[in-house]
Structures are given as C-alpha cells and as structure tokens.
Amino acid sequence: MASPSGSPPALRAVLFDSGGVLMRPIGGRWNPRADFEQTVLARAPSLTEQQFAAAIAAGDRFLAASSSTPGPDDYHRAMLRHLGVDPTAQLLADLRRDVHPSAFLETYPDVEGTLVELSRRGVRMAVVSDAWPNLPELHAGLGIGRFFEAYAISAVLGCNKPDPHMYRHASTALGLPPGVCLFVDDDPELVAAAIRLGYAGRALCRDGTASAVLSVVPSAGSLTQLLDLF
Predict the structure, then answer these.
(1) What does the DSSP assignment read for the chain?
(2) Between vectors from CA 8 to CA 4 and to CA 14, what angle results, nearest 5°?
(3) Which of 57, 83, 114, 210 could form an SS bridge with 223, CB 3.0 to 4.6 Å?
(4) For 55-98, how does the pLDDT look when each residue is reduced to its tens digit (9 = 90+)?
(5) Distance of alpha carbon 140 from alpha carbon 101, whole angstroms
C-alpha cells in the first residue's frame, strides 16, 4: 500500500538469499562439500577423478529433479549409488560430519560491513534460501548469523523459490508486509517473482552483468549499494 502522499512505503527490511549473495564456497563448488572425495576414497581408494565427476553430475541431476531441497543423506546416497559404494550409516554420517564453515565457505568482502550498517540503521533482516537446515549454523560460524531474525529454508519448508511460501514465511516471521521488504538474490528470475508478490527487489550482479538484467528487474553491483535505499 502506498503512503498517503502516493509514494511507495519506506523499506524496513531486507530478505537475503544466501549462496551467491552472502557467502560462496572456497574453491568454487557448492555441492558436494569439498571433502566428499577424500571421505569416500577412504572406503573405496580405487575410484578415479572421472568416476567422481560422473557421480557429482548425477547428484546435480538428483537435486534438479527434486521439488524441494532433499536431505543430505538422500543426496549423498544418489552419488554413492552411482559410484557403486555402499551408503553405510557410518559413511553417511562422515559425509555430513560437522566441519567449521570457514574450512569450505567464506563471506563476500562487502557482506559484513553492509550488515553492520543496516543493523545500525534499524533495518530488519531475514534469509530466504534453497538450502539445508543447517544454514543458520553455517552463518553463525561465519560470523553473520547474529544479523538475521528469521530464516525461510527450502529443506525445512518443503518448497523452493519461487514458491510464494518461501518469501512470505520470512516477511511474516518479521511481522512485516511484503511492500516494506526488499528481496535480494543473484537470480533475476527469483527477484522478479518476489516483485510480482509485492516485494521490492534487487538482483545482485557482482560479476558485472548488471546491464543484462536492468531491463528485467532492478539490480545492484554490490551489497553496499543497498544502503542507498534505507
């Protein structure tokens, strides 16, 4: 709803995607975790790089075919079946064992400073991400979890973006209507979906492709540019 003057309502919150917006994998691969090969090779030392590459591709197809984010054990089973390795309970536990997030993840350089300043300005913050349930723990390990009041996580909610429930779960948890919430994602189509639901939106284009999405949705080249909106 517009303000009495007819201008859009002032933004009060940011709903952030996580991967590609707040954090990235060290080495460039999101899934499986970087220690997947080493853990499996301890049981099956004769496996080759080519076999692992094919298994990881099978895992990608498994994720793509899922209507929501499957559990990590199911994902690992799909790759282990492709490798011909018995997915024992111990192996599955080893593949999802706790490892400090900083061993395989890092935040982007513009993240912490932007979150600190948004918090100082009283901006509410939440996360909307297609991810596994341990995402809050990953953020906490990277030192940014304290900024977020709520999480909408696909593996918890049973749906992926752009399902409206993903966006609405976060804004409802903040107690705010969509019109005062800014959704930020590195996928312009997911930003466009949020805008259709009444949210403000920005596509984050750190790699210099902003001009390619300007005609589709509003964009930003860094998180620090969001500060101009608050």
Answers:
(1) ---TTSSPPPP-EEEE--BTTTEEETTS--SS-TTHHHHHHTT-TT--HHHHHHHHHHHHHHHHH-SSPPPHHHHHHHHHHHHT----HHHHHHHT----GGGTEEE-TTHHHHHHHHHHTT-EEEEEES--TTHHHHHHHTT-GGG-SEEEEHHHHT--TTSHHHHHHHHHHHT--GGGEEEEES-HHHHHHHHHTT-EEEEE-TTS-HHHHTTTS-EESSGGGGGGG-
(2) 135
(3) 114
(4) 999 999 999 998 888 889 999 999 999 999 999 999 999 999 98
(5) 9
